[in-house]
Each structure stands twice: as structure tokens, then as C-alpha cells.
Amino acid sequence: MWGRTKILVLVLFFHLGSCQKNPTSAEFKFPNDFPNVEYKNPNNELTPEKIYLGRVLFYDPNLSSTRTISCGSCHAQVHGFADHNLPKSFGVHNRLGKRNSPSIQNLAWNKSFMWDGGITHLDVMPIAPITDVNEMDLPLGLAIERIKENKQYQPLFQKAYNDTTINEKTVLFALSQFMLSLVSDQSKYDDVRRGKSNFNKLEKQGYTLFQSNCSKCHSEPLLTNNHFEYNGLAVNDTDVGRFRITQLQKDTHHFKVPSLRNVALTYPYMHDGSFSNLDQVLNAYKLKFQLQNQDVDALRAFLHTLTDHKFISNLNHGEIHPFNP
Predict the structure, then answer these.
(1) Is there a domain that residue 47 lies in?
(2) With 234 labelled, which of 32, 124, 164, 278 sits at a CA distance of 20 to 30 A?
């Protein structure tokens, strides 16, 4: 797996600078009622052609050593781009990953990635799963060579970059563009927030409880503060979490707060997948916050309003049968 030093070198190579307020393309726009995006790279202007190229790469299993695992293998649209309800993902040769695969959604508002924040820019984030021995297990240089060998990629790179040059930068930029386009903002919760719908009585009760007990960490409208917290519920003491990156004792067993968007679809939960379903999580917090049974029912009802059915059925996000080498 590539070390943090090599990833930093790539970031510098890409000449990253300050971002525009809300970079957009002619056919793609970020929600106006979301915060300003955190993604920074003025050299990677969003275009439909780059987004499409990134989508093809995202679903291409030839980017794994065995040609069997793609990014989409562990990030399924039907599950809000989390894994297929597995505690930990299986990579090449059925090797088991170390942590639960998080949902890929609304990444434009993230300052860091992975459960411990070990990667700080979206443009280099794909290097980790592609090169990790337990995931796709393919050196980045070899992945680029496989893409070059497939002549059917050339017209896609030509359309995206007005050039058939294929290298680390053009591949990673395209993958970023597709992931940036995975925006979830069309749930019932969003409709209520925008004055287009109303919660029913139970959902409204749950929303009030959520605001009182949960919103400090799961801040609206992204439903995460993107910070690292210790929730007191971790059952796997061997994973030191954020401490692995900072080496600060205060960060031991701190993990990135996941967004609750599409939470009903992204089970199992926590960094280790230790909670199999939403009821287990709610019951754990029931004890922590001394909630009543009716409170749990109300919170569950509210959390289901965060499911974005348009997001999980958007044809522009779906799997494309990749090219053969």
C-alpha cells in the first residue's frame, strides 16, 4: 500500500490550490443550500465527460490484481454506496478488509477520508483501495498500464481531456469527478427542509429528539460534522482509530463521524461493522441517553426519512459493464 509520503507527493504534483465557492459543470451543480464545498483543485474542472470517464473507471474490475474487484464492488449504489451489508469487505482472493467500507456520498464536503482521516484529498484517495493488499492489490503504475492497453479507453480520455494521455493524474482526477457527482440531497428530510413536504407525527417527534441528542456530531444538513469522535460503543479495542495518524493519546479509538444520510441502507454500522442493524444502534444509544421505547420508535422513523430513493436509483450513478482488456 502506498505510504502517506507518496500520496503527499502526488498531491503536490497536482498543484492543488484554493477552490471556487461551488465548482460546477454545465450539467452538474452542487446544492445551493449545502455549505461551500471543501474539495480544492482548480485544475480539475468538473465536466460531464470526466464524470462519465470516472464512472467507467469506478466500475472496472481490471483495476484489481485478479481483475475481479472494482471500486463499485465494495460501494454499491443500492446501499448508498456502502458495501453489500457486510461488516468488512472482501477484496481479491477473498482477503478480508480491516474496516467497514463507508458510504461514498457527498464527498465534496469532506476534508479527510477513511475512518481515521489518513487521506486528506479526494484526488489521491483511490490509491489506497487500489494498492491495498487486502482490497484490489494492484500497484498504481500497473493499473495505469492496464488502462493504456485497453484501446477503448482512448476516446473517453480524448473527450474528457481533449487528449489521449493516460497517467496517474488523468485517471485519479476522473475518479474524483465521478465521486464528487455522488450527491445525496433528495430525501424526504430534504423536502421537509425545503418546505416541500412535512414530517408525520412520529417523524417529527424523532426529529426533535435527533436535534436534542444527535445533531452535535451529526450536524445538518450533511448529517455529519466530519470530526473524529469516541462514541463509547466500540467493541474492538485493537483498532486505535485516529491515533494511528496523529499519535496523540487523545485520539485513541476516535473515528470519523459518518453521515446519517441513507443510514437505513448502509448497515452494518461502526468502523468494524459491529452493529448489524439500525435497531442495535438505537438500543445502544437508548441506554446511553436514557431514552424510552417510544423515543427509539420516533428516532427510527426520522432516520428513515433520510433515505434518498432518487440517489440510489439515479441511472447516471449506476454500474457500467467495463471494457475487457
Answers:
(1) yes
(2) 124
Report the chain's mean pLDDT, rounded to a whole number.
90
Residues 30, 23: Cα–Cα separation, whole Å: 8
Q: What pLDDT digit, counting tens, does each position of 200-253 carry?
A: 999 999 999 999 999 999 999 999 999 999 987 755 578 999 999 999 999 999
Q: Is residue 138 part of a domain?
A: yes
The whole-model pTM stands at 0.90
For residue 13, is it within any domain?
A: yes
Q: What is the arithmetic mean of pLDDT over 111-130? A: 96
Q: Tell the residue number behind the cell numbers 469527478, with chain if given.
A: 177
Domain boundary among 183, 210, 239: 183
Same domain, yes or no: 163 and 223:
no
Say how many Å lie between the first and final Cα of the chain, rounded. Answer: 24
Radius of gyration of the chain (CA): 20
What is the C-alpha separation between 94 and 97, in angstroms, rounded? 9
Inside any domain, residue 317 = no
Whether residue 21 is predicted with pLDDT greater than 90 in this model: the reply is no
Domain that holds residue 225: 188-307
User: Cα separations (Å) of 266 from 47, 105, 119, 140, 282?
Assistant: 29, 11, 22, 29, 15
Of the listed ranges 28-32, 76-80, 133-137, the least confidently predicted one is 28-32
CA distance 210 to 102: 22
- Rounded CA-CA distance 310/4 in Å is 36
Q: Which residue has the higher pLDDT, 296 or 85?
A: 296
Residue 217 CB partners (closer than 8 Å, separation 6+): 224, 225, 227, 229, 257
Same domain, 31 and 135: yes
Residues 163 and 202 in one domain: no
Residue 214, judged by CB atoms within 10 A of its CB (0-12, 13-18, 19+), counts as middle
Q: Which of 229, 257, 266, 285 shows the shortest CA–CA distance to 87?
A: 266
Neighbours of 141 (CB within 10 A): 11
> Are 22 and 118 in a shared domain?
yes
Q: Are residues 239 and 156 in the same domain?
A: no
Same domain, 27 and 106: yes
